[in-house]
Structure formats: C-alpha cells, structure tokens
Amino acid sequence: MSALLTTAITASLGLLGAAMLLTLVRLFIGPSAQDRVLALDYLYLLGMLTMLVLGIRYASDTYLEAAVLIALFGFVASFALARFLLRGEVIE
Question: For the chain, how many structural domains are there in total?
C-alpha cells in the first residue's frame, strides 16, 4: 500500500471520528425528536463508511459485509422511528 493511500485512509478515519463525535453531541442535545432521528441516521451512515474505509485499509471482505448489515439495520430503524414519530405506533 502506498504512503499516499495510507495517509488518506488515516485522515479519513480521523475525520469520520470527528464527525461521529459531533453527531453524538447533536443526538444528545438535539432540540427536537426529529433532530435526534436525523443524527441517528447520520451516525449509522458514518459507521457504515468507517467500516468501508477499514475494509480498504485491511483488504478484507468482512468489513464490506458488516457495512451492508449496518446499512440494512439502519434503514429499518430509520423507517420504524419515522413511523413512530408520525403515528405514535410502529406496528398497526
């Protein structure tokens, strides 16, 4: 792996970590429930991107599978939270 790629991966992991910290701040002190749901959506997106970058770093397919699972569960959770905020119930 080249030095440029290693530097880019390290920088991107650092920026993703900083974005996760800022998102956690919004998740905990968000003024409304909608802000918290959006922060949670962004948090799972950042987690998925982190797994993809780690998969590139370690040249492993396992990280890709984990990223797909995070995306799947994140979408289902977002759908359930949005439905709960709109109707007050998840299952009819």
Answer: 1
Question: Tokens 């792996």 — which residue?
Answer: 1
Q: Which two tokens mark 90?
A: 């998840």
Here the tokens at position 57 are 């770093």
pTM for this model (two decimals): 0.85
CB 34 within 8 A of CB 85: yes
Hunting for tokens 């800022």 — which residue is that?
22
- CATH number, domain with residue 65: 1.10.287
Domain range for 79? 3-87
Euclidean distance between CA atoms 40 and 24, whole angstroms: 8
pLDDT tens for each residue of 1-38: 799 999 999 999 999 999 999 999 999 998 888 888 88
Share of the chain above pLDDT 90, in %: 66
Distance CA 47, CA 40 (A): 10
CB-neighbour burial class of residue 55 (10 A; exposed 0-12, middle 13-18, buried 19+): middle
